[in-house]
Every structure is written in structure tokens, then in C-alpha cells.
Amino acid sequence: MDFSIDDTTIRIFLHLLGVTVWVGGQIVLGALIPVIRRLGEDAPRKAARQFNRVAWPFFGLAVVTGIWNTAEVDFDATTTGWKAALFVKLILVAVSGVTAWMHTRARNAAARGAFAAATLLASLGALLLGTGLVT
To answer: Which of 33, 77, 106, 121 has the fewest C-beta atoms under 10 angstroms from its C-beta?
Structure first.
């Protein structure tokens, strides 16, 4: 078996990097919020703002490389099930982005929590389906 770093490797690496920061960052920040709250009333908001400075560009990277990945697919060689999974994944990616944006606009803790949970669930669903699409 031969090894090389070609356009496909770079494309997949960049996509995984974007997804890793977007999804993994949500998990890490969610786990840290109880500790961050103890640092002060304004600390969670400051941490979230800093996270957003990192997370959103990586979400964009995941979307752009996802489009690139999709452009490389020979759809004639895929099954109806594969296409359905891709469609659902795309919906989940959109839900993830929209609910994350809504989370940043929410005015109360209950709404922020609900939007954060929806964002994480949609992100994890998209990750699961994406993994299935390439195996």
C-alpha cells in the first residue's frame, strides 16, 4: 500500500479539522461552563465570545470543504440510501448552524441551553452521518 498527501487528503483533513473544532469545541465548552461560572457572572459570556471567534471560522471551513467533498462525488455511483443520508446530513449541518446562531442571540438561560443542546445534537448527528457516508 502506498502513501501520499494529495488533494483528496488535504480536502478530507481540512474538513475533519473544521468538524473537530466545531463539534469538539461545543463538547469542551459545555463541560467547562460549570467551572467558568464560578469565575464570575460575566465569565461564561466572555468565554462564549472567545469560543465563537474560533468556532465560526471552523464551521465555515467545514461547510466549504463539505461542498468541495460533495463536488467530488460521482452521484451516479451512489445508492438512494447514500443520497438520503447526505440530504439528512446537510439538513443537520444547517440546523447546527442556525441553532448555534440562535444560541448567540438568546436572551435567557433556558433558551441558550435549549439552543446549545439542539446545536450539539444536530452536530453529532451530522458527524455520525458523515462518518457513515465515507465508510
So the answer is: 77
